[in-house]
Amino acid sequence: MPTQKVSTMRRDELAFALRQVVGERGVLSDETDLVPYGHDWRHMFKGRPCCVVLPHTTHEVAEVMRLCAAAGVPVVPHGGNTGLSGGATPDDSGHQVVLSLAKMNAIRNIDVIGETIEVEGGCILQTAQEAVDDKGLLLPITLAAEGSAQIGGIVSTNAGGTNVLRYGMARSRILGLEVVTSEGQIINGLRRLRKDNAGYDWKQWFIGSEGTLGIITAAVLQLTPKPRHRVTALLAVPSPAAALQVLCAARGAIGETLTGFELMSGSALELVTRHRQLKVPLDAAAWYVLLEASSSLPGLRDATESLLGDVLKKEMANDGVVAESQQQEADLWALRESITEAEGREGRSIKHDVSVPISSIPDFLRTADEAVMRTFPGTRINTFGHAGDGNLHYNVIVPASLDAAALNRLVHDVVVYFGGSISAEHGIGQYRVDELMRCRSPIELAIARRIKNALDPQNLLNPGKVLALR
Ligand code: MLT
Ligand code: ZN
Question: Is the CB of 352 under 6 A from ligand 1?
């Protein structure tokens, strides 16, 4: 077919031109090399890239973008492939170029006095964390996937994680960005300023845009002093309402030292003990809270233990254990961080990454549980998440035949009813586009489309992700 031939020829020409920019080994086009880039890590989304480009410098990224723009070829940015919404997976047309910054992984600068780090987009989060650790500094973005997640992906998805209640989402750590536009221009905004009110804060448009507005090639991140003391505790609580009572008691007793406050249902930990052979050091309970506090001042352990004594006495919690060593801390966190994997082993699950006002968590759970059980009997709800910041992973284990779209609509309607969000931290990707279009107001969508059109007029940056254009 003539059209097929023309597009095949153009793809070959483009691959040749891209090799001129990034070198022979900077373009992957063998079918076997492309396989890891054609699916997300959970194998939920599948696609077929035309090729994978691995530039070494920001200028090479800009040149790649110029070539793709001239050829009218879409570009799908790809970080550590740890996302849960299919944002980094190309479609199956075989026409989309995957752009990986894996070779741009340098730490460009650490400013100890200013408490900043400047890193390239392909740098692994854990590498950046380790680089500042022995300087007494902390890069406070903490995710189960930190050993693979790349800074470019962290920025472009505005990643959350387990210490958002203390340190905020990734957005709140970002002081400056270097971005390559869809047309191949470089915006150098790598400022290390805590205060910068000079006009529009354009970097915010790119943070959380999931690669649909520009390519994040480097970032300046705000660090914080590394706390010298940490206390981790696991509590058994009778209900989500009791968990919130513990949260309020903790705020009162240990205040700003509260770093993590995770809620896990008894059934979530039952999955973990079954599939990962991990042990819960407390008797079986309906709900659990994993609490972490950290501070540089002495006295944290005493204050936290006295808090726990208090919540046990007042029967907000039924039982509790405080980690006595780093190994015990790691064991407690392993329970929490293994839930996703254990859930995956259990069978098909439909994830809902929602947030509601913190005070609405118990009512949201009651209402959503009733609605799901009534409409989809036989499914099992696996609730856990970052209750301290209002983010719940309201996942449902379902039979293969279940209509996922209907379940999503049901859960998200309850979320919207409680004034919540249908994506607290995982982003929209390709997974939640329809639901975002349904749950956001026409004016919010119109503004989003205007911004997309202004920054990516040909719709070549990660098309089909985040936003339906009409
Ligand atoms: C987590 O917090 O463990 C993940 O964001 C949740 C998930 O896998 O659903
Ligand atoms: Zn999470």
Answer: no
Residues 112-141 have pLDDT tens digits of 999 999 999 999 999 999 999 999 999 999
Q: What residues contact residue 268 under an 8 Å CB cut-off, 6+ apart? A: 339, 342, 343, 382, 383, 384
Mutate to test the pocket of ligand 1, among 335, 353, 382, 432 (most ligand atoms within 8 A of CB): 353
Please tell me if the CB atom of residue 144 comes closer than 6 angstroms to any atom of ligand 1.
Answer: yes
Give the helix/strand (H/E) hosting 167.
helix 164-167
- Write out pLDDT tens, residues 252-306: 999 999 999 999 999 999 999 999 989 999 999 999 999 999 999 999 999 999 9
Say if residues 304 and 269 touch (Cβ distance below 8 Å): no
pTM (whole model) above 0.85: yes
Query: For 47-88, how does the pLDDT look when each residue is reduced to its tens digit (9 = 90+)?
Result: 999 999 999 999 999 999 999 999 999 999 999 999 999 999
CA distance 385 to 265: 9
- Separation CA 243–CA 98 (nearest Å): 44
Task: Tell how far the Cα of 393 is from the centroid of ligand 1, in angstroms.
Answer: 6
Ligand 1 pocket mutation pick from 340, 397, 431 by most atoms within 8 angstroms of CB: 340
Any atom of ligand 1 within 6 Å of the Cβ of 336? no
C-alpha 442 to ligand 1 mean position (Å): 30
- Sign of torsion over alpha carbons 339, 341, 346, 351: positive
Angle at CA of residue 427, ends 39 and 121, nearest 5°: 70
Structural domains of the chain sorted by starting position, each given as residue range(s) with its CATH number in brackets? 3-102 (3.30.43.10), 107-225 (3.30.465.10), 229-338 (3.30.70.2190), 347-427 (3.30.70.2740)
For the chain, give the number of residues. 470
Q: Tell me the CA–centroid distance for residue 1 and ligand 1, in Å.
A: 46
Is residue 394 a contact partner of residue 381, using CB atoms and an 8 Å limit? yes
Give residue 470's pLDDT: 80
Q: Is 182 in the pocket of ligand 1 (CB under 6 A)?
A: no
